[in-house]
Specification:
The protein contains 12 helices and 8 strands. The protein is α/β, with parallel strands linked by helices. It has a single domain, classed as NADP-dependent oxidoreductase domain (TIM Barrel, Alpha-Beta Barrel), CATH 3.20.20.100. The chain is globular. The structure holds NADP nicotinamide-adenine-dinucleotide phosphate.
Amino acid sequence: MDKNEKFPKIALGAWAWGNDGTFGRTLTADELRPVFDTAMKAGLNLWDTAFVYGMGTSEKILGGFLRTVPRDSYYISAKFTPQCADPKSENAVVEMFNTSAELLGTDYMDFYWIHNPVGAPKWIKELIPLAKSGKIGHIGLSNHNLAEIKEAAAILENEGLKISAIQNHYSILNRSSEDSGILDYCKENGITFFSYMVLEQGALSGKYSTSNPLPENSDRGRTYNPLLPQIEKIVAVMKEIAQKHGVSTAQIPIAWAIAKGTLPIIGVTKASQAEDAAKAAALELTADEIKAIEDAADRYKLNVIRGWEKEMK
Ligand SMILES: NC(=O)c1ccc[n+]([C@@H]2O[C@H](COP(=O)([O-])OP(=O)(O)OC[C@H]3O[C@@H](n4cnc5c(N)ncnc54)[C@H](OP(=O)(O)O)[C@@H]3O)[C@@H](O)[C@H]2O)c1
Protein backbone atom coordinates (compact mmCIF):
# COMPACT_ATOMS: atom_id res chain seq x y z
CA MET A 1 0.00 0.00 0.00
CA ASP A 2 1.14 3.54 -0.70
CA LYS A 3 2.72 5.13 2.35
CA ASN A 4 0.38 8.12 2.11
CA GLU A 5 -2.66 5.91 2.36
CA LYS A 6 -4.18 5.42 5.79
CA PHE A 7 -7.11 3.11 5.53
CA PRO A 8 -9.55 2.88 8.41
CA LYS A 9 -9.86 -0.45 10.25
CA ILE A 10 -13.39 -0.80 8.86
CA ALA A 11 -14.86 -0.18 5.42
CA LEU A 12 -18.52 0.68 4.95
CA GLY A 13 -20.70 -1.16 2.44
CA ALA A 14 -23.42 0.38 0.31
CA TRP A 15 -25.14 -2.71 -1.09
CA ALA A 16 -28.37 -1.95 0.81
CA TRP A 17 -28.32 1.58 -0.66
CA GLY A 18 -29.23 0.18 -4.06
CA ASN A 19 -32.18 -1.96 -3.15
CA ASP A 20 -32.37 -4.98 -5.42
CA GLY A 21 -34.65 -7.22 -3.36
CA THR A 22 -31.89 -8.36 -1.01
CA PHE A 23 -32.70 -6.13 1.93
CA GLY A 24 -36.45 -5.62 1.63
CA ARG A 25 -36.88 -1.88 1.43
CA THR A 26 -35.88 1.15 -0.59
CA LEU A 27 -33.68 3.79 0.98
CA THR A 28 -33.64 7.36 -0.29
CA ALA A 29 -30.65 9.69 -0.64
CA ASP A 30 -32.24 11.97 1.98
CA GLU A 31 -32.33 9.10 4.50
CA LEU A 32 -28.76 8.06 3.69
CA ARG A 33 -27.07 11.45 3.74
CA PRO A 34 -26.79 11.51 7.58
CA VAL A 35 -25.30 8.00 7.43
CA PHE A 36 -22.59 9.22 5.05
CA ASP A 37 -21.91 12.39 7.05
CA THR A 38 -21.71 10.55 10.39
CA ALA A 39 -19.32 7.98 8.96
CA MET A 40 -17.02 10.55 7.38
CA LYS A 41 -16.94 12.56 10.60
CA ALA A 42 -15.95 9.40 12.50
CA GLY A 43 -13.10 8.75 10.05
CA LEU A 44 -14.80 5.88 8.23
CA ASN A 45 -14.02 7.00 4.69
CA LEU A 46 -13.49 3.75 2.77
CA TRP A 47 -16.67 3.02 0.80
CA ASP A 48 -17.44 -0.30 -0.86
CA THR A 49 -20.00 -0.57 -3.65
CA ALA A 50 -20.63 -2.13 -7.07
CA PHE A 51 -22.64 -1.29 -10.17
CA VAL A 52 -24.67 -4.48 -9.62
CA TYR A 53 -26.02 -3.12 -6.29
CA GLY A 54 -29.32 -1.92 -7.72
CA MET A 55 -27.82 -1.63 -11.24
CA GLY A 56 -26.17 1.71 -10.59
CA THR A 57 -28.48 2.89 -7.77
CA SER A 58 -25.98 2.39 -4.94
CA GLU A 59 -23.16 4.05 -6.91
CA LYS A 60 -25.41 6.93 -7.93
CA ILE A 61 -26.45 7.72 -4.33
CA LEU A 62 -22.91 7.29 -2.97
CA GLY A 63 -21.48 9.32 -5.88
CA GLY A 64 -23.91 12.13 -5.11
CA PHE A 65 -22.43 12.37 -1.60
CA LEU A 66 -18.81 11.90 -2.66
CA ARG A 67 -19.12 14.78 -5.12
CA THR A 68 -19.70 17.13 -2.17
CA VAL A 69 -16.39 16.30 -0.42
CA PRO A 70 -12.75 16.56 -1.61
CA ARG A 71 -11.44 13.58 -3.58
CA ASP A 72 -8.57 13.05 -1.16
CA SER A 73 -10.95 12.74 1.82
CA TYR A 74 -12.22 9.26 0.90
CA TYR A 75 -11.30 5.91 -0.63
CA ILE A 76 -13.55 4.12 -3.07
CA SER A 77 -13.83 0.39 -3.62
CA ALA A 78 -15.91 -0.73 -6.65
CA LYS A 79 -16.26 -3.93 -8.63
CA PHE A 80 -16.46 -5.52 -12.07
CA THR A 81 -19.28 -8.07 -11.97
CA PRO A 82 -18.91 -10.67 -14.75
CA GLN A 83 -22.66 -11.34 -14.88
CA CYS A 84 -23.31 -7.67 -15.77
CA ALA A 85 -20.77 -7.58 -18.61
CA ASP A 86 -22.08 -6.91 -22.11
CA PRO A 87 -21.40 -10.25 -23.86
CA LYS A 88 -20.79 -8.43 -27.18
CA SER A 89 -18.20 -6.10 -25.69
CA GLU A 90 -14.48 -6.62 -26.30
CA ASN A 91 -13.61 -4.42 -23.35
CA ALA A 92 -16.25 -5.17 -20.74
CA VAL A 93 -14.00 -4.42 -17.75
CA VAL A 94 -13.08 -0.95 -19.02
CA GLU A 95 -16.73 -0.24 -19.87
CA MET A 96 -17.99 -1.18 -16.40
CA PHE A 97 -15.13 0.71 -14.77
CA ASN A 98 -16.05 3.84 -16.76
CA THR A 99 -19.76 3.51 -15.93
CA SER A 100 -18.98 3.20 -12.20
CA ALA A 101 -16.44 6.03 -12.37
CA GLU A 102 -19.03 8.35 -13.91
CA LEU A 103 -21.69 7.43 -11.34
CA LEU A 104 -19.23 7.86 -8.46
CA GLY A 105 -17.76 11.08 -9.83
CA THR A 106 -14.14 9.94 -10.00
CA ASP A 107 -11.69 8.66 -12.60
CA TYR A 108 -9.65 6.65 -10.07
CA MET A 109 -10.65 3.64 -7.96
CA ASP A 110 -8.59 3.08 -4.81
CA PHE A 111 -9.71 -0.57 -4.97
CA TYR A 112 -11.14 -2.26 -8.03
CA TRP A 113 -12.30 -5.85 -7.75
CA ILE A 114 -13.21 -8.77 -9.97
CA HIS A 115 -16.46 -9.51 -8.14
CA ASN A 116 -16.48 -13.27 -8.64
CA PRO A 117 -14.59 -15.95 -10.56
CA VAL A 118 -17.25 -16.61 -13.24
CA GLY A 119 -15.28 -16.70 -16.52
CA ALA A 120 -11.92 -16.47 -14.69
CA PRO A 121 -9.14 -15.75 -15.52
CA LYS A 122 -10.41 -13.72 -18.52
CA TRP A 123 -11.35 -10.63 -16.50
CA ILE A 124 -8.10 -10.24 -14.59
CA LYS A 125 -6.30 -10.21 -17.95
CA GLU A 126 -8.66 -7.47 -19.21
CA LEU A 127 -7.99 -5.48 -16.07
CA ILE A 128 -4.22 -5.27 -16.69
CA PRO A 129 -4.18 -2.28 -19.13
CA LEU A 130 -6.52 -0.39 -16.81
CA ALA A 131 -4.25 -1.04 -13.83
CA LYS A 132 -1.17 -0.04 -15.84
CA SER A 133 -2.86 3.21 -16.87
CA GLY A 134 -2.83 4.23 -13.18
CA LYS A 135 -6.61 4.28 -12.76
CA ILE A 136 -6.62 1.55 -10.10
CA GLY A 137 -4.81 1.89 -6.80
CA HIS A 138 -5.23 -1.70 -5.66
CA ILE A 139 -6.40 -4.79 -7.51
CA GLY A 140 -8.77 -7.05 -5.61
CA LEU A 141 -10.43 -10.42 -6.08
CA SER A 142 -13.73 -11.32 -4.48
CA ASN A 143 -15.37 -14.72 -3.96
CA HIS A 144 -12.30 -16.50 -5.40
CA ASN A 145 -10.97 -19.68 -3.80
CA LEU A 146 -7.26 -20.22 -3.10
CA ALA A 147 -6.54 -21.93 -6.45
CA GLU A 148 -8.26 -19.11 -8.34
CA ILE A 149 -6.38 -16.50 -6.30
CA LYS A 150 -3.04 -18.15 -7.08
CA GLU A 151 -3.89 -18.37 -10.78
CA ALA A 152 -4.68 -14.64 -10.93
CA ALA A 153 -1.61 -13.78 -8.83
CA ALA A 154 0.65 -15.55 -11.34
CA ILE A 155 -0.93 -13.70 -14.28
CA LEU A 156 -0.49 -10.35 -12.56
CA GLU A 157 3.06 -11.12 -11.46
CA ASN A 158 4.08 -11.65 -15.10
CA GLU A 159 2.96 -8.07 -15.72
CA GLY A 160 4.70 -6.60 -12.69
CA LEU A 161 1.37 -6.26 -10.86
CA LYS A 162 -0.05 -7.85 -7.73
CA ILE A 163 -3.23 -8.67 -5.87
CA SER A 164 -3.57 -6.21 -2.99
CA ALA A 165 -6.82 -7.39 -1.51
CA ILE A 166 -9.20 -10.34 -1.19
CA GLN A 167 -12.89 -9.82 -0.36
CA ASN A 168 -14.84 -12.85 0.81
CA HIS A 169 -17.71 -13.77 3.08
CA TYR A 170 -16.28 -14.12 6.58
CA SER A 171 -18.31 -14.17 9.75
CA ILE A 172 -18.70 -16.38 12.79
CA LEU A 173 -21.22 -18.35 10.69
CA ASN A 174 -18.89 -18.78 7.71
CA ARG A 175 -15.18 -19.21 8.35
CA SER A 176 -14.37 -21.14 5.18
CA SER A 177 -11.83 -18.53 4.03
CA GLU A 178 -9.96 -19.20 7.28
CA ASP A 179 -10.34 -23.00 7.16
CA SER A 180 -9.22 -23.15 3.51
CA GLY A 181 -6.01 -21.20 4.17
CA ILE A 182 -7.00 -17.99 2.34
CA LEU A 183 -6.48 -15.85 5.44
CA ASP A 184 -3.00 -17.33 5.97
CA TYR A 185 -2.16 -16.87 2.28
CA CYS A 186 -3.14 -13.19 2.58
CA LYS A 187 -0.98 -12.69 5.67
CA GLU A 188 2.00 -14.39 4.04
CA ASN A 189 1.69 -12.30 0.88
CA GLY A 190 0.90 -8.85 2.31
CA ILE A 191 -2.67 -8.96 0.99
CA THR A 192 -5.47 -7.24 2.92
CA PHE A 193 -8.43 -9.54 3.56
CA PHE A 194 -11.73 -7.64 3.47
CA SER A 195 -14.42 -9.62 5.31
CA TYR A 196 -17.95 -9.07 4.05
CA MET A 197 -21.28 -9.91 5.73
CA VAL A 198 -19.69 -9.98 9.17
CA LEU A 199 -23.18 -9.17 10.53
CA GLU A 200 -24.89 -11.70 8.20
CA GLN A 201 -26.97 -8.84 6.79
CA GLY A 202 -28.30 -7.95 10.24
CA ALA A 203 -28.98 -11.45 11.56
CA LEU A 204 -25.97 -11.20 13.93
CA SER A 205 -26.54 -7.56 14.89
CA GLY A 206 -28.76 -8.23 17.90
CA LYS A 207 -31.54 -6.24 16.21
CA TYR A 208 -33.37 -9.21 14.66
CA SER A 209 -34.78 -12.24 16.49
CA THR A 210 -37.58 -14.80 16.25
CA SER A 211 -39.91 -12.14 17.67
CA ASN A 212 -38.55 -9.46 15.30
CA PRO A 213 -37.51 -11.28 12.10
CA LEU A 214 -35.77 -9.78 9.07
CA PRO A 215 -38.09 -8.38 6.36
CA GLU A 216 -39.96 -11.34 4.88
CA ASN A 217 -40.04 -9.93 1.36
CA SER A 218 -36.26 -10.01 1.06
CA ASP A 219 -33.48 -12.46 0.23
CA ARG A 220 -31.98 -11.90 3.66
CA GLY A 221 -35.32 -12.69 5.33
CA ARG A 222 -35.72 -15.87 3.31
CA THR A 223 -32.15 -16.91 4.19
CA TYR A 224 -31.91 -16.08 7.87
CA ASN A 225 -35.44 -16.18 9.27
CA PRO A 226 -35.56 -20.00 9.26
CA LEU A 227 -32.21 -20.02 11.13
CA LEU A 228 -33.16 -17.45 13.78
CA PRO A 229 -33.86 -20.01 16.57
CA GLN A 230 -30.19 -21.12 16.41
CA ILE A 231 -28.81 -17.66 15.57
CA GLU A 232 -30.59 -16.25 18.61
CA LYS A 233 -28.58 -18.59 20.86
CA ILE A 234 -25.29 -17.48 19.29
CA VAL A 235 -26.32 -13.82 19.55
CA ALA A 236 -27.12 -14.37 23.26
CA VAL A 237 -23.43 -15.18 23.88
CA MET A 238 -22.37 -12.03 22.04
CA LYS A 239 -24.95 -9.97 23.92
CA GLU A 240 -23.43 -11.04 27.22
CA ILE A 241 -19.94 -10.04 26.05
CA ALA A 242 -21.33 -6.73 24.75
CA GLN A 243 -22.89 -5.99 28.14
CA LYS A 244 -19.56 -6.62 29.87
CA HIS A 245 -17.90 -4.07 27.59
CA GLY A 246 -20.86 -1.68 27.76
CA VAL A 247 -21.29 -1.67 23.97
CA SER A 248 -24.01 -2.68 21.51
CA THR A 249 -24.21 -6.33 20.39
CA ALA A 250 -23.46 -5.40 16.76
CA GLN A 251 -20.00 -4.23 17.77
CA ILE A 252 -18.98 -7.73 18.88
CA PRO A 253 -18.90 -9.49 15.48
CA ILE A 254 -17.20 -6.41 14.00
CA ALA A 255 -14.51 -6.43 16.71
CA TRP A 256 -14.18 -10.20 16.21
CA ALA A 257 -13.47 -9.74 12.48
CA ILE A 258 -10.79 -7.13 13.25
CA ALA A 259 -9.25 -9.37 15.93
CA LYS A 260 -8.95 -12.11 13.28
CA GLY A 261 -6.73 -9.80 11.21
CA THR A 262 -9.34 -8.82 8.62
CA LEU A 263 -10.78 -5.51 7.46
CA PRO A 264 -14.57 -5.84 7.82
CA ILE A 265 -16.94 -4.14 5.37
CA ILE A 266 -20.02 -3.19 7.34
CA GLY A 267 -23.30 -2.37 5.60
CA VAL A 268 -24.82 0.72 7.22
CA THR A 269 -28.27 2.15 6.67
CA LYS A 270 -28.55 4.40 9.73
CA ALA A 271 -26.31 7.05 11.31
CA SER A 272 -26.27 5.09 14.59
CA GLN A 273 -24.88 2.07 12.73
CA ALA A 274 -22.00 4.14 11.36
CA GLU A 275 -21.32 5.32 14.94
CA ASP A 276 -21.39 1.72 16.16
CA ALA A 277 -18.92 0.68 13.46
CA ALA A 278 -16.55 3.47 14.47
CA LYS A 279 -16.75 2.40 18.12
CA ALA A 280 -16.16 -1.25 17.22
CA ALA A 281 -12.83 -0.26 15.66
CA ALA A 282 -11.62 0.66 19.16
CA LEU A 283 -13.02 -2.42 20.90
CA GLU A 284 -10.63 -5.20 21.89
CA LEU A 285 -11.93 -8.68 22.66
CA THR A 286 -9.99 -11.11 24.84
CA ALA A 287 -8.86 -14.51 23.55
CA ASP A 288 -11.45 -16.11 25.86
CA GLU A 289 -14.24 -13.97 24.41
CA ILE A 290 -13.21 -14.83 20.87
CA LYS A 291 -13.22 -18.52 21.78
CA ALA A 292 -16.64 -18.25 23.46
CA ILE A 293 -18.15 -16.66 20.33
CA GLU A 294 -16.63 -19.23 18.00
CA ASP A 295 -17.60 -22.13 20.28
CA ALA A 296 -21.21 -20.87 20.35
CA ALA A 297 -21.28 -20.72 16.54
CA ASP A 298 -19.58 -24.13 16.19
CA ARG A 299 -22.36 -25.74 18.22
CA TYR A 300 -24.82 -25.13 15.38
CA LYS A 301 -22.56 -25.53 12.31
CA LEU A 302 -24.78 -23.19 10.28
CA ASN A 303 -22.09 -22.44 7.66
CA VAL A 304 -24.23 -19.97 5.72
CA ILE A 305 -23.35 -19.99 2.02
CA ARG A 306 -25.37 -17.59 -0.14
CA GLY A 307 -26.62 -18.15 -3.69
CA TRP A 308 -23.67 -16.38 -5.38
CA GLU A 309 -21.09 -18.14 -3.20
CA LYS A 310 -19.37 -21.48 -2.98
CA GLU A 311 -17.55 -23.28 -0.20
CA MET A 312 -13.94 -21.99 -0.15
CA LYS A 313 -11.96 -25.20 -0.44
N1 LIG B 1 -18.07 -9.07 -2.77
C1 LIG B 1 -19.24 -9.58 -2.52
O1 LIG B 1 -19.68 -10.55 -3.17
C2 LIG B 1 -20.07 -9.01 -1.42
C3 LIG B 1 -21.17 -9.73 -0.93
C4 LIG B 1 -21.88 -9.19 0.15
C5 LIG B 1 -21.52 -7.96 0.68
N2 LIG B 1 -20.47 -7.27 0.15
C6 LIG B 1 -20.07 -5.93 0.66
O2 LIG B 1 -20.04 -5.99 2.08
C7 LIG B 1 -20.95 -5.04 2.62
C8 LIG B 1 -21.53 -5.57 3.92
O3 LIG B 1 -22.44 -6.63 3.68
P1 LIG B 1 -24.01 -6.43 3.80
O4 LIG B 1 -24.34 -4.99 3.72
O5 LIG B 1 -24.63 -7.34 2.81
O6 LIG B 1 -24.33 -7.06 5.23
P2 LIG B 1 -23.79 -6.83 6.72
O7 LIG B 1 -22.75 -5.81 6.80
O8 LIG B 1 -23.52 -8.18 7.27
O9 LIG B 1 -25.14 -6.31 7.44
C9 LIG B 1 -25.65 -5.05 7.15
C10 LIG B 1 -26.96 -4.87 7.88
O10 LIG B 1 -26.79 -5.09 9.27
C11 LIG B 1 -27.57 -4.18 10.02
N3 LIG B 1 -26.67 -3.38 10.87
C12 LIG B 1 -25.49 -2.81 10.53
N4 LIG B 1 -24.94 -2.19 11.60
C13 LIG B 1 -25.78 -2.39 12.62
C14 LIG B 1 -25.76 -1.98 13.98
N5 LIG B 1 -24.75 -1.27 14.48
N6 LIG B 1 -26.80 -2.34 14.77
C15 LIG B 1 -27.84 -3.08 14.28
N7 LIG B 1 -27.91 -3.47 12.99
C16 LIG B 1 -26.89 -3.14 12.18
C17 LIG B 1 -28.31 -3.29 9.02
O11 LIG B 1 -29.63 -3.84 8.86
P3 LIG B 1 -30.90 -2.87 8.67
O12 LIG B 1 -30.63 -2.12 7.40
O13 LIG B 1 -32.05 -3.80 8.62
O14 LIG B 1 -30.90 -1.94 9.87
C18 LIG B 1 -27.49 -3.45 7.76
O15 LIG B 1 -28.23 -3.28 6.57
C19 LIG B 1 -21.98 -4.80 1.50
O16 LIG B 1 -22.68 -3.59 1.68
C20 LIG B 1 -21.07 -4.83 0.30
O17 LIG B 1 -20.39 -3.58 0.17
C21 LIG B 1 -19.73 -7.79 -0.87
